């Protein structure tokens, strides 16, 4: 449970959730679990249709759509604020909805507000930044964000969201807009707020140019998680320490303070670039997916986002069903139960409720002050453990069949700690999970089963 004064250091994307449901989730789960913020789906009016991607085709900047009305949106923001949870909005302003006339009277934008029609082709990402910036994501009229009237319309939208209490923005398709255009728009939006920019690395986009606007999504981290946990490209967990080493930085990740990271987002979890492998893991990877979150939340790099949406079927994605069902403040739920296997029937994955994830949000918050890794140990390619100095210790056993049992140096002071993955500290101080004894030299004898993890920290002493 969250304790006042502890920083909130992770956020969740409640993809396609309704505003009223998000307000309730803030109060019942996100706030108490220590989430910093919730990213919400694009709230502006979009083309009709039930597919998720209709919301990436704006027809105006009015707050209206299947997640709810402006009044419901406002109520959500205030309920979340009361629970200590900020709201970040996914804002789409690189383009408007597919429409041959290029006329959007409700903004209004007319044909003169757009770049000349041309579609981005794959080779552009290797050799033509101008086309990545000024041609269209296939079919989507590309706004000329160098025009002041266009910048003003977008800034009006962002300022409107700010007036409703919004604390941050995820800028959709950011690398398809010049960094100076984004800066000029944000300059028209006063105050201080969080920004993260969707910037999939390619051969032509200088990611560092975007730092002046806020953080960027570091997609290389997502690929590192996929490769290690799904054993792609000959990689494994034991290599993560070297891959993520902040000094050697062999993959050239952006600096931690500039990065937002996730195990999967709404695009990568659906895409199979080679027709076989998903671009990232997703909920169908089960325990492997949860263990990757355990790692992401334990490892000191970036600002992590947990993706939580509806069960999708890659081949027949029918769009979001009706709302998740959650009932009481203690976490019992009908549809939204954590750690269930995808069935397609219950509708929503509720990834953020999983103990592997929710428990680790607390771990990240409580270990934030020790932004380094110590006591790293790996006994096999699939087994790693490490400390966050004297504040927390985690064991991740991704081995399919073998348990991992040994004595570990935890780095923690002597005492008994409550494992936040098998359970957690209850309101009455009882530990519902495993209790771990750390001796006077920091050692604990532990046994962690296959595809399981264990995490203890100073905020959950048994
Ligand atoms: C993004 N980031 O840069 C979003 O994260 C991603 O989800 C969006 O694509 C994309 N940019 C545009 O905002 C999604 C979806 C596309 C879909 C678009 C627009 O992945 O498949 O394109 O939203 O709704 C759809 C059709 C596509 C068609 C296009 C225009 O799937 O076949 O292309 O509309 O009609 C002709
Ligand atoms: Ca553009």
Mean pLDDT: 93
Number of E-state strands: 19
> What about the largest sheet?
8 strands, parallel, barrel
- The fraction of residues in strands falls at 15-25%
CATH C-level name of the largest domain: Alpha Beta
Span between termini? 13 Å
Bound molecules: ligand LM2, calcium ion
Return Rg in Å. Answer: 22 Å
Task: Give the overall shape, derived from the CA principal axes.
Answer: globular
Strand order of the largest sheet: 1-2-6-7-8-9-10-11
Q: What is the CATH superfamily classification of the largest domain?
A: Glycosidases
Helix content: 10-25%
Written description of the protein model:
It catalyses: Endohydrolysis of (1->4)-alpha-D-glucosidic linkages in polysaccharides containing three or more (1->4)-alpha-linked D-glucose units. Its cofactor is Ca(2+). There is one protein chain. By secondary structure, the chain is of the alpha/beta class. It folds into two domains: 11-367, Glycosidases (TIM Barrel); 374-457, Sandwich (Immunoglobulin-like), CATH 2.60.40. It is 22% helix and 20% strand. It is built from ten helices and 19 strands. It has helices at 19-33, 70-82, 124-127, 129-134, 148-163, 179-186, 219-229, 240-243, 287-298, 355-367; strands at residues 11-14, 37-40, 44-46, 58-65, 68-69, 86-91, 168-171, 194-197, 215-217, 259-262, 303-308, 374-380, 383-387, 392-397, 404-409, 415-418, 435-438, 443-448, 452-457. An eight-stranded parallel barrel has the order 1-2-6-7-8-9-10-11, surrounded by five helices. The chain has a four-stranded antiparallel β-sheet with strand order 12-13-14-19, covered by helices on one side. A hairpin with a 2-residue loop joins strand 4 (58-65) and strand 5 (68-69). Helix 1 runs parallel beside helix 2, helix 5 packs across helix 6 and helix 9 runs parallel beside helix 10. The longest helix is centred in the middle third of the chain and has 16 residues, at 148-163. The model is unreliable at 327-334 (pLDDT under 50). The chain binds ligand LM2 and calcium ion. Calcium ion binds next to helix 4.
């Amino acid at each position: 449970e969250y304790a006042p004064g502890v920083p909130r250091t992770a956020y969740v994307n409640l993809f396609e959730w309704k505003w009223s449901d998000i307000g309730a989730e803030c109060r019942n789960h996100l706030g108490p679990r220590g989430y910093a913020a919730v990213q919400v789906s694009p709230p502006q009016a979009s083309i009709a249709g039930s597919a998720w991607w209709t919301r990436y085709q704006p027809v105006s900047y009015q707050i209206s759509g299947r997640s709810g009305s402006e009044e419901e949106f406002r109520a959500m923001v205030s309920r979340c604020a009361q629970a200590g949870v900020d709201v970040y909005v996914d804002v789409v302003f690189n383009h408007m909805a597919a429409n041959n006339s290029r006329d959007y009277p409700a903004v209004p934008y007319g044909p003169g507000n757009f770049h000349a029609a041309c579609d981005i082709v794959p080779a552009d990402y290797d050799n033509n930044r101008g086309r990545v910036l000024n041609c269209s994501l296939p079919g989507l009229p590309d706004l000329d964000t160098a025009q002041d009237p266009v910048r003003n319309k977008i800034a009006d939208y962002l300022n409107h969201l700010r007036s409703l209490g919004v604390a941050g923005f995820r800028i959709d398709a950011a690398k398809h807009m010049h960094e100076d255009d984004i800066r000029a728009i944000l300059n028209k939006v006063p105050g201080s707020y969080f920004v993260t920019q969707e910037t999939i690395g390619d051969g032509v986009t200088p990611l560092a140019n975007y730092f002046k606007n806020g953080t960027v999504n570091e997609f290389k981290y997502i690929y590192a998680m996929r490769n290690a946990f799904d054993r792609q490209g000959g990689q494994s967990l034991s290599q993560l320490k070297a891959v993520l080493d902040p000094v050697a930085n062999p993959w050239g990740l952006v600096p931690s303070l500039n990065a937002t990271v996730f195990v999967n987002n709404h695009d990568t979890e659906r895409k199979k670039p080679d027709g076989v492998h998903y671009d990232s893991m997703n909920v169908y990877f089960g325990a492997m997916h949860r263990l990757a979150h355990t790692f992401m939340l334990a490892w000191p790099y970036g600002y992590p986002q947990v993706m939580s949406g509806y069960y999708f079927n890659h081949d027949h994605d029918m769009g979001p069903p009706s709302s998740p069902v959650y009932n009481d403040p203690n976490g019992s739920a009908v549809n939204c139960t954590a750690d269930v296997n995808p069935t397609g029937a219950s509708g929503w994955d509720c990834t953020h409720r999983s103990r592997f994830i929710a428990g680790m949000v607390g771990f990240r918050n409580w270990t934030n002050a020790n932004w380094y890794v110590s006591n790293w140990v790996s006994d096999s390619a699939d087994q790693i453990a490490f400390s966050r100095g004297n504040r927390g210790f985690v064991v991740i056993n991704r081995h399919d069949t073998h348990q991992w049992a040994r004595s570990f140096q935890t780095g923690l002071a002597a005492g008994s700690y409550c494992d936040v993955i098998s359970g957690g500290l209850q309101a009455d101080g009882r530990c519902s999970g495993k209790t771990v004894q750390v001796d006077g030299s920091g050692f604990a004898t532990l046994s962690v089963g296959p595809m399981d993890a264990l995490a203890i920290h100073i905020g959950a002493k048994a």
